[in-house]
Amino acid sequence: MKNQFTKILAIVICILSSTIVNAQKDKPYLKGLTKATEAEMSTVNIMLDGESIAVYDENGKRLRGQEIMNAFDSKKYMPAFYLDAQKECKVVQLNITTKEEMKIMEQMEVDGVFVENEPDLNGDFVINQPDLIGQQAPDFSITDLNGTTYTLESLKGKVVVLNFWFIECKPCVMEIPELNELVKKYANKDVVFLGLAHNNKESLKTFLKTQKFDYNLVPSSTEVAFKYKVSVYPTNMIINQNSEIEFVKYGYDTDILDAIGNHIEELIN
Protein backbone atom coordinates (compact mmCIF):
# COMPACT_ATOMS: atom_id res chain seq x y z
CA MET A 1 0.00 0.00 0.00
CA LYS A 2 2.75 2.48 0.86
CA ASN A 3 4.20 2.11 -2.65
CA GLN A 4 0.86 3.13 -4.14
CA PHE A 5 0.29 6.14 -1.92
CA THR A 6 3.34 8.14 -0.95
CA LYS A 7 3.21 11.88 -1.54
CA ILE A 8 2.23 14.87 0.49
CA LEU A 9 -1.48 15.51 0.98
CA ALA A 10 -1.68 18.55 3.23
CA ILE A 11 0.41 20.39 5.54
CA VAL A 12 1.41 17.52 4.97
CA ILE A 13 -0.14 14.20 4.55
CA CYS A 14 0.97 12.56 1.30
CA ILE A 15 -0.98 10.24 -0.92
CA LEU A 16 -0.74 8.97 -4.43
CA SER A 17 -3.93 7.66 -6.00
CA SER A 18 -3.87 5.14 -8.85
CA THR A 19 -7.66 5.15 -9.17
CA ILE A 20 -9.54 6.96 -11.93
CA VAL A 21 -11.09 10.27 -10.90
CA ASN A 22 -14.02 12.03 -12.52
CA ALA A 23 -13.21 14.10 -15.60
CA GLN A 24 -13.33 17.87 -15.07
CA LYS A 25 -15.39 20.05 -17.37
CA ASP A 26 -15.94 23.80 -17.53
CA LYS A 27 -13.38 24.58 -14.84
CA PRO A 28 -11.66 27.83 -15.89
CA TYR A 29 -9.04 27.49 -13.15
CA LEU A 30 -7.81 24.31 -14.85
CA LYS A 31 -7.09 26.07 -18.13
CA GLY A 32 -3.58 25.30 -19.36
CA LEU A 33 -3.09 22.56 -16.78
CA THR A 34 -2.99 18.79 -17.17
CA LYS A 35 -4.04 16.16 -14.67
CA ALA A 36 -1.01 14.44 -13.17
CA THR A 37 -0.41 10.81 -13.95
CA GLU A 38 0.65 8.29 -11.30
CA ALA A 39 4.23 8.43 -12.60
CA GLU A 40 4.29 12.25 -12.40
CA MET A 41 2.91 12.25 -8.88
CA SER A 42 5.77 10.05 -7.73
CA THR A 43 8.09 13.06 -8.16
CA VAL A 44 5.74 15.95 -7.29
CA ASN A 45 5.49 17.37 -3.76
CA ILE A 46 2.23 18.88 -2.55
CA MET A 47 1.86 21.47 0.21
CA LEU A 48 -1.90 21.50 0.61
CA ASP A 49 -2.48 24.67 2.63
CA GLY A 50 -4.87 26.31 0.17
CA GLU A 51 -2.48 29.18 -0.54
CA SER A 52 0.66 27.68 -2.08
CA ILE A 53 -1.59 25.56 -4.28
CA ALA A 54 -5.24 26.39 -4.98
CA VAL A 55 -7.79 23.81 -3.79
CA TYR A 56 -11.32 23.62 -5.22
CA ASP A 57 -14.33 21.49 -4.32
CA GLU A 58 -16.56 19.71 -6.80
CA ASN A 59 -18.59 22.90 -7.37
CA GLY A 60 -15.56 25.04 -8.17
CA LYS A 61 -15.48 26.79 -4.79
CA ARG A 62 -11.97 27.58 -3.61
CA LEU A 63 -11.20 26.17 -0.17
CA ARG A 64 -8.75 27.46 2.42
CA GLY A 65 -7.45 26.49 5.83
CA GLN A 66 -9.93 24.61 7.97
CA GLU A 67 -12.27 24.13 4.99
CA ILE A 68 -9.65 21.90 3.38
CA MET A 69 -9.17 19.88 6.53
CA ASN A 70 -12.92 19.49 6.96
CA ALA A 71 -13.22 18.27 3.37
CA PHE A 72 -10.63 15.53 3.88
CA ASP A 73 -11.93 14.61 7.32
CA SER A 74 -15.35 14.01 5.75
CA LYS A 75 -13.83 11.35 3.45
CA LYS A 76 -16.19 12.71 0.81
CA TYR A 77 -13.46 13.69 -1.62
CA MET A 78 -10.54 12.27 -3.55
CA PRO A 79 -7.93 14.77 -4.83
CA ALA A 80 -6.86 15.15 -8.45
CA PHE A 81 -3.61 17.04 -9.00
CA TYR A 82 -3.15 19.42 -11.95
CA LEU A 83 0.28 20.45 -13.25
CA ASP A 84 1.57 23.29 -15.38
CA ALA A 85 4.06 22.95 -18.25
CA GLN A 86 6.94 22.85 -15.76
CA LYS A 87 5.31 19.90 -13.98
CA GLU A 88 4.58 21.96 -10.89
CA CYS A 89 1.30 21.34 -9.10
CA LYS A 90 -0.91 24.43 -9.35
CA VAL A 91 -4.39 23.16 -8.53
CA VAL A 92 -5.92 20.38 -6.49
CA GLN A 93 -9.45 19.47 -7.55
CA LEU A 94 -11.55 17.60 -5.00
CA ASN A 95 -13.88 15.09 -6.60
CA ILE A 96 -16.62 13.12 -4.92
CA THR A 97 -15.14 9.85 -3.68
CA THR A 98 -16.35 6.73 -5.47
CA LYS A 99 -17.14 3.52 -3.60
CA GLU A 100 -13.90 2.00 -4.87
CA GLU A 101 -11.88 4.98 -3.67
CA MET A 102 -13.63 4.89 -0.31
CA LYS A 103 -12.47 1.32 0.19
CA ILE A 104 -8.90 2.36 -0.64
CA MET A 105 -9.01 5.25 1.82
CA GLU A 106 -10.35 2.98 4.55
CA GLN A 107 -7.46 0.59 3.91
CA MET A 108 -5.02 3.50 4.07
CA GLU A 109 -6.29 4.29 7.56
CA VAL A 110 -5.67 0.70 8.56
CA ASP A 111 -2.15 0.94 7.13
CA GLY A 112 -1.48 4.10 9.13
CA VAL A 113 -1.16 6.50 6.19
CA PHE A 114 -3.53 9.07 7.66
CA VAL A 115 -2.85 11.01 10.88
CA GLU A 116 -5.76 12.06 13.05
CA ASN A 117 -6.14 15.83 13.46
CA GLU A 118 -7.96 18.03 15.95
CA PRO A 119 -8.10 21.73 16.97
CA ASP A 120 -6.09 22.94 19.94
CA LEU A 121 -7.52 24.91 22.89
CA ASN A 122 -7.57 28.07 20.79
CA GLY A 123 -9.46 26.35 18.01
CA ASP A 124 -6.46 26.36 15.71
CA PHE A 125 -5.79 23.35 13.51
CA VAL A 126 -2.97 21.12 14.70
CA ILE A 127 -1.60 17.79 13.58
CA ASN A 128 -1.08 15.00 16.06
CA GLN A 129 2.09 13.06 15.43
CA PRO A 130 3.35 9.81 16.94
CA ASP A 131 5.56 10.17 20.02
CA LEU A 132 8.89 8.84 18.77
CA ILE A 133 11.14 10.21 21.51
CA GLY A 134 13.01 7.43 23.30
CA GLN A 135 12.32 4.91 20.57
CA GLN A 136 15.01 3.09 18.62
CA ALA A 137 15.53 4.92 15.35
CA PRO A 138 14.51 2.93 12.24
CA ASP A 139 17.46 1.65 10.23
CA PHE A 140 18.33 3.24 6.91
CA SER A 141 20.92 3.13 4.14
CA ILE A 142 21.08 6.35 2.18
CA THR A 143 23.46 8.09 -0.23
CA ASP A 144 23.91 11.85 -0.40
CA LEU A 145 24.55 14.07 -3.42
CA ASN A 146 28.30 13.60 -3.03
CA GLY A 147 28.04 9.82 -3.18
CA THR A 148 28.63 9.24 0.54
CA THR A 149 26.56 6.39 2.00
CA TYR A 150 25.22 6.49 5.54
CA THR A 151 23.63 3.71 7.58
CA LEU A 152 22.28 3.98 11.09
CA GLU A 153 24.82 1.38 12.22
CA SER A 154 27.74 3.32 10.76
CA LEU A 155 26.59 6.47 12.57
CA LYS A 156 26.34 4.85 16.01
CA GLY A 157 28.37 6.82 18.53
CA LYS A 158 27.63 10.10 16.75
CA VAL A 159 24.81 12.59 17.12
CA VAL A 160 22.70 12.50 13.96
CA VAL A 161 20.52 15.47 13.05
CA LEU A 162 17.82 14.81 10.45
CA ASN A 163 15.88 17.38 8.47
CA PHE A 164 12.92 16.10 6.43
CA TRP A 165 12.07 18.66 3.75
CA PHE A 166 11.37 19.38 0.08
CA ILE A 167 12.10 22.31 -2.21
CA GLU A 168 8.49 23.42 -2.72
CA CYS A 169 7.89 23.66 1.04
CA LYS A 170 8.34 27.37 1.81
CA PRO A 171 8.75 26.90 5.59
CA CYS A 172 11.39 24.25 4.86
CA VAL A 173 13.39 26.70 2.79
CA MET A 174 12.89 29.52 5.30
CA GLU A 175 14.70 27.63 8.06
CA ILE A 176 17.72 26.63 5.94
CA PRO A 177 19.92 29.62 6.96
CA GLU A 178 19.55 28.67 10.64
CA LEU A 179 20.24 25.02 9.89
CA ASN A 180 23.42 26.13 8.12
CA GLU A 181 24.46 27.90 11.32
CA LEU A 182 24.18 24.60 13.18
CA VAL A 183 26.49 22.89 10.69
CA LYS A 184 29.05 25.65 11.10
CA LYS A 185 28.84 25.59 14.91
CA TYR A 186 29.37 21.83 15.21
CA ALA A 187 31.76 21.33 12.31
CA ASN A 188 34.46 19.87 14.57
CA LYS A 189 32.17 17.69 16.67
CA ASP A 190 30.83 14.16 16.20
CA VAL A 191 27.58 15.49 14.76
CA VAL A 192 26.26 14.47 11.34
CA PHE A 193 23.63 16.58 9.58
CA LEU A 194 21.43 14.84 6.99
CA GLY A 195 18.88 16.66 4.83
CA LEU A 196 16.34 14.08 3.64
CA ALA A 197 14.55 15.53 0.64
CA HIS A 198 11.63 14.23 -1.39
CA ASN A 199 13.10 15.84 -4.50
CA ASN A 200 15.29 13.95 -6.93
CA LYS A 201 19.00 14.55 -7.49
CA GLU A 202 18.59 16.84 -10.49
CA SER A 203 16.08 19.07 -8.71
CA LEU A 204 18.33 19.40 -5.67
CA LYS A 205 21.35 20.33 -7.77
CA THR A 206 19.32 23.04 -9.51
CA PHE A 207 18.07 24.32 -6.16
CA LEU A 208 21.60 24.53 -4.76
CA LYS A 209 22.65 26.89 -7.56
CA THR A 210 20.70 29.67 -5.86
CA GLN A 211 20.31 28.43 -2.28
CA LYS A 212 23.10 27.22 0.00
CA PHE A 213 22.24 24.24 2.21
CA ASP A 214 25.15 22.80 4.18
CA TYR A 215 23.49 19.60 5.36
CA ASN A 216 24.50 16.37 3.62
CA LEU A 217 21.57 16.29 1.22
CA VAL A 218 19.94 12.99 0.36
CA PRO A 219 17.59 12.93 -2.67
CA SER A 220 14.41 10.87 -3.08
CA SER A 221 14.07 10.11 0.64
CA THR A 222 10.34 9.36 0.75
CA GLU A 223 10.93 5.81 2.01
CA VAL A 224 12.97 7.05 4.97
CA ALA A 225 10.29 9.65 5.79
CA PHE A 226 7.73 6.85 5.78
CA LYS A 227 9.85 4.78 8.19
CA TYR A 228 10.09 7.75 10.55
CA LYS A 229 6.33 8.42 10.25
CA VAL A 230 6.88 11.94 8.98
CA SER A 231 3.83 13.72 7.60
CA VAL A 232 4.60 17.31 8.59
CA TYR A 233 7.19 19.46 6.84
CA PRO A 234 9.68 20.52 7.84
CA THR A 235 10.40 17.90 10.49
CA ASN A 236 13.65 17.97 12.46
CA MET A 237 14.92 15.05 14.52
CA ILE A 238 17.98 14.21 16.58
CA ILE A 239 19.25 10.65 17.04
CA ASN A 240 21.59 10.13 19.97
CA GLN A 241 24.80 8.12 20.14
CA ASN A 242 22.83 4.96 20.99
CA SER A 243 20.68 5.28 17.87
CA GLU A 244 17.63 6.42 19.86
CA ILE A 245 15.37 9.29 18.84
CA GLU A 246 16.20 12.11 21.23
CA PHE A 247 14.33 15.10 19.81
CA VAL A 248 11.51 15.72 17.32
CA LYS A 249 10.13 19.01 16.09
CA TYR A 250 7.26 19.03 13.60
CA GLY A 251 6.68 22.12 11.49
CA TYR A 252 8.41 25.47 11.17
CA ASP A 253 9.86 26.99 14.34
CA THR A 254 11.51 30.42 14.48
CA ASP A 255 13.62 29.12 17.38
CA ILE A 256 14.77 25.94 15.63
CA LEU A 257 18.44 26.95 15.94
CA ASP A 258 18.26 27.01 19.74
CA ALA A 259 15.89 24.03 19.94
CA ILE A 260 18.25 21.74 18.05
CA GLY A 261 21.42 23.33 19.42
CA ASN A 262 20.40 22.88 23.05
CA HIS A 263 19.78 19.17 22.55
CA ILE A 264 23.08 18.71 20.73
CA GLU A 265 24.88 20.40 23.62
CA GLU A 266 23.26 18.03 26.12
CA LEU A 267 24.40 15.03 24.09
CA ILE A 268 27.99 16.02 23.44
CA ASN A 269 28.83 17.48 26.85
Task: Give an overview in words.
- With 269 residues, the protein is of the alpha+beta class.
- It is built from eight helices and 14 strands.
- The N terminus is likely disordered.
- Helix content is 24%, strand content 23%.
- The strands form four sheets. Strands 1-4-5-2-3 form a five-stranded mixed beta sheet. Strands 12-11-10-13-14 form a five-stranded mixed beta sheet. It has a two-stranded antiparallel ribbon with strand order 6-7.
- The protein folds into two domains: 100 residues, no CATH class; 128 residues, Glutaredoxin.
- The radius of gyration is 19 Å and the shape is elongated.
Which SSEs are present, and which pair or pack?
Layout: E1 34-35, H1 38-41, E2 54-56, E3 62-63, H2 66-73, E4 77-83, E5 89-96, H3 99-110, E6 117-119, E7 125-127, E8 141-143, E9 149-151, E10 159-165, H4 170-174, H5 176-185, E11 191-197, H6 201-207, E12 216-218, H7 222-227, E13 235-239, E14 245-250, H8 256-268
Parallel strand pairs: 2-5, 10-11, 11-12
Antiparallel strand pairs: 1-4, 2-3, 4-5, 6-7, 8-9, 10-13, 13-14
